[in-house]
Amino acid sequence: MIVISAGAFLACAAALAVVGWVIGKRYAEASVTAMFDRLMSEPAIRVAVIVVWWWLGWHFLAGQTL
C-alpha cells in the first residue's frame, strides 16, 4: 500500500513540475512565488491549504506516534 501512496505522490509531484514548466515557458513573467501569491489571495484556497497540511500532518506524522 505504501508503494501505491508513494507512487501517487510522485506522480502528482511530476505533474506539478510539468505544469509549472509549461506555464513558465508560456508566460515569462510567471514565477512560482507570483503564482503562489495569486493563489493565496483567495480565502477558500487559504483554508484548503491549511486543511490539506493538517490532514497530511495528522495521517503521516501524528498517526504513527499514537
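The record above closes out task 2.4. Task 2.5 opens with a second protein, given below.
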Amino acid sequence: MINGLPAHVLLVHAVVVLVPLTASLAVLAAVWPTARRALIWLATVLAAVTMVLTPITVDAGETFARNFGPSETLRTHADLGSTMTWFVVPLVVLTVALLVVHLRERRGKPLARVFVVALAVLVIVAGVAATVQVFRVGESGARAVWGASSAQ
C-alpha cells in the first residue's frame, strides 16, 4: 500500500508510460545516429528503471489480485502481466548494446554497419513487441476491473 492505495494501481501507470517511452527512444537511437548521441543515456536509464519496476509491479498485482474472487478476466490479466518482464529484458539488453555502439562511435572505433543495422532491426522488433504487450496487459486489466464496459 502507498498512501492507502494498492501499490499495483500506482506502479502500473509508471510501467504503462515507461515501456512505450523507452521503446520509442531506443528505436530513435537505433535508426538515427544524431538521436543516438542525444538520447542513448536517457533511453538506457529508463530501460533500467523499467526493468526494475516491471517485476515489482507484477508482484504488487499478484498481491492485489488476492483481494478479489477468482475471475477469468483477472486470470487473463495476471497471465499476460506475468509475461511483461520477458518483453522488457530484451529492450534493456538491446538498449545497452546501443550504448556500446554509441561509446565505440565516440572513440572513433565504430562497429561494422551490418551489426548496427541488425541491432536497429532487433530494437524495432523488441520495442514494438514490448509496446504491444503493455497495451494487451493494460487492456486486459481494464476489462478485469471495469468488465465489458471497458471495450466500449
